[in-house]
Amino acid sequence: MSLTRTQFLEIENVLRNALRNKFQNYLPEPTSMPFHTRLLGKDRLAL
Questions:
Q1: Measured CA distances, 39 to 15, 27, 42, 44, 45 (Å)
Q2: Residue 45 class from Cβ within 10 Å (0-12 exposed, 13-18 middle, 19+ buried)?
Q3: pTM of the predicted protein model
Q4: Are 24 and 17 in contact, with CB atoms under 8 Å apart?
Q5: In the Cβ-directed half-sphere of 1, how many Cα atoms lie within 13 Å?
Q6: What is the distance between the alpha carbons of residues 10 and 5, in angstroms, rounded to a whole number?
Q7: DSSP annotation of 1
Q8: Distance CA 7, CA 2 (A)
Q9: How many domains are there within the chain?
Q10: DSSP readout, 24-41?
Q11: pLDDT tens-digit map of 1-47
């Protein structure tokens, strides 16, 4: 059972909009730990 073309386009649009919203509302510091990036540094935060 495969998706129709319209279903495929709807799913694609939902994913694009979700990613677009995530990138537009991106905050580099988490709200639960706002000092973490400054305290540990960006390279330590990736660990």
A1: 34, 17, 9, 9, 9
A2: middle
A3: 0.54
A4: no
A5: 1
A6: 9
A7: -
A8: 10
A9: 1
A10: HT--SS-SS-TTHHHHH-
A11: 788 999 999 999 999 999 999 989 887 666 666 676 666 665 554 54
